[in-house]
Amino acid sequence: MTTISSRDFNQDVGKAKRLARQGPVFITDRGRPSHVLMSFEAFRQISGQTESIIDLLAMLPAETADLEPTDSTPAWDRIGGLED
């Protein structure tokens, strides 16, 4: 268990995040515990959450998405664009 003051947390958030990978970090305000920082994976474990289909889809690489139009006609011709 790691405890840091809110002042130290504000001065080095990255350090607090690194510590949270190893276990919960208790953040104190005026010497009293006020918050707990933990990794998202640890949160999921204690809350009983599992991966949803949305989480799995979000992990897909961007190049798997087909962003090209299926019609080879230029866009301005499809919408009645420029005429002679």
What do you see in this structure?
By secondary structure, the chain is of the alpha+beta class. It has a single domain (about 1-60), classed as YefM-like fold, CATH 3.40.1620. The protein has helices spanning about 5-10, 15-20, 40-45, 55-60, 75-80, and strands at about 1-5, 25-30, 30-35. Strands 1-2-3 form a three-stranded mixed β-sheet. The mean pLDDT is about 80.
CA radius of gyration is: 24 Å
CATH topology description? YefM-like fold
Q: What share of the residues does DSSP label as strand, in percent?
A: 15-25%
Low-confidence stretches: none
- From the N-terminal CA to the C-terminal CA, the straight-line distance is 75 Å
Counting helices, strands and paired strands, the structural category is alpha+beta
Q: How many separate helices?
A: 5
Q: Give the total of domains.
A: 1
Task: Give the overall shape, derived from the CA principal axes.
Answer: elongated
List SSEs in N-to-C order.
Answer: EHHEEHHH
> What is the CATH-assigned architecture?
3-Layer(aba) Sandwich
CATH level 4 superfamily: YefM-like domain
Largest sheet: 3 strands, mixed
Question: Which features does this protein show?
Answer:
YefM-like fold, 84 residues, 38% helix, alpha+beta, 3-stranded mixed sheet
Could you give a quick summary of the protein structure above?
The protein is an alpha+beta fold and 84 residues long. It contains five helices and three strands, in the order βααββααα.
